[in-house]
Write a structure and sequence with these properties.
Length: about 90
Amino acid sequence: MQGVTFVRENAPEIIDLKKELYRKFEVLSPPEALIASSASSFVWSTPSADMRAPHRLLTAHPFNPPHLISLVEMNCPSKDTLDFAEKFI
């Protein structure tokens, strides 16, 4: 995953699955890369709890229908992460 700066994750709302994806993401991606999750049933602190660098995770949930409403709600405690993510959303 060299050169990756932003990954969009849309896995099913299964917390163990998402945490495993985030673990692999942290191992394989550059340290500055972000992962945006569309998780809507978890508060941000739940999926990020086991991450080594939780500031790399943000919730980026699109409004529906996304092909008509080009709006994405983003959530993360880090303003720097949100500012960086705005370049990709």
